[in-house]
Write a structure and sequence with these properties.
Elements lengths: L9 H13 L5 H9 L5 H16 L6 E5 L4 H12 L3 E6 L4 H7 L5 E4 L5 H15 L4 E4 L14 H29 L2 E6 L12 H21 L3 E8 L5 H6 L2 H9 L9 H12 L10 E4 L7
Parallel strand pairs: 1-2, 1-4, 2-3, 4-5, 5-6, 6-7
Helix pairs in contact: 1-3, 2-3, 4-11, 6-7, 7-8
Length: about 300
């Protein structure tokens, strides 16, 4: 019975909080907290300390982000969240309306129409972003394509298009951004992979191959660019973007949901929330990881 267990004194509890906060890896904030709150109890100081840590970790004011595929879907959800946290964003997209989309996020943001399969256009776009913002802190590689067909019927064009957008473009955008990030001594990169990177899906041979390669690429970049740049991947299940809703409408979608333990598809905002965490200072010890967000589908 819990009522019979001895209870530690409040003084001991306060001391535990005090020591935990003081010895934290975010100790630089400790001194400021103690200075500002000398009269508070150790418990209150610990709470204030951690609150300040989280507020600072997710404060993106003065930071600049590049987001591919940013005109719609997951990319736009990521852009909206980063802007809400204070970042300025540059959206790279094949959609010619991307400049209008960026303007809709507020003043100071960029929208650049670019064919991500063209390395020369990628390099030019990233140079433009750097010249405008004078820094690049974050990259979210969200642009992607899925051309579905049985393996025996996949055309060379379908294969090449899938690999060019999902893999080649992701690498060369990351390379272009990393050159600036390494020069400034810091950066964060999040690559959008897929649950298709870790499981087999019929009619997805080119897509699965491209996304598995993105995860492998992520690990190598994390090794080569450490300790200055953190590189991670996110692997979602089906996401209810406009395209996702269209592709998985009706019976096929309802059947797919029954195979996901969570019983539903993911929302773009959920993917954006994970991206924000991986880009934030709170995730500074995470690199080279592939974080699966699929409602439990891949653990079955």
């Amino acid at each position: 019975r819990t009522s019979s267990l001895p209870r530690p004194s409040a003084r001991i509890n306060e001391r535990i909080v005090y020591e935990a906060a003081r010895s934290s890896v975010v100790a630089p904030l400790w001194k400021r907290c103690v200075t500002n709150h000398q009269s508070t109890s150790a418990t209150a100081t610990g709470v204030i300390f951690m609150s300040e840590f989280w507020n600072k970790a997710f404060d993106l004011n003065g930071r600049c982000a590049v987001i591919t595929g940013g005109a719609a879907g997951i990319g736009f959800a990521c852009a909206s969240l980063l802007v809400a946290r204070g970042a300025r964003v540059a959206l790279l997209d094949r959609d010619q309306a991307v400049a209008e989309v960026a303007a809709g996020l507020g003043s100071g943001h960029l929208g650049i129409a670019v064919d991500l399969r063209r390395v020369d256009q990628v390099n030019s776009a990233i140079d433009t972003v750097f010249e405008h913002f004078k820094r690049i802190d974050y990259l979210v590689n969200s642009a992607g394509v899925a051309v579905l067909d049985k393996a025996v019927d996949v055309s060379e064009e379908a294969w090449d298009t899938t690999l060019e957008i999902n893999l080649k473009a992701s690498f060369f955008v990351a390379q272009a951004c990393a050159r600036h990030m390494l020069g400034q001594g810091s950066g964060r990169i999040v690559n959008l992979a897929s649950q298709a990177a870790v499981i087999g899906l019929d009619r997805h041979v080119a897509y699965c191959a491209s996304k598995a390669a993105v995860v492998g690429m992520t690990k190598v970049l994390a090794m080569e660019w450490a300790p200055h740049i953190n590189v991670n991947a996110i692997s979602p299940t089906i996401v209810e973007t406009a395209l996702g809703k269209k592709a998985w409408a009706g019976e096929v979608g309802e059947r797919a949901k029954t195979q996901i333990p969570a019983g539903r598809f993911a929302q773009p905002e959920e993917i954006a929330g994970l991206a924000l965490y991986l880009l934030s200072d709170a995730a500074s010890m995470i690199t080279g990881e592939n974080v699966v967000i699929d409602g439990g589908y891949s653990i079955q």
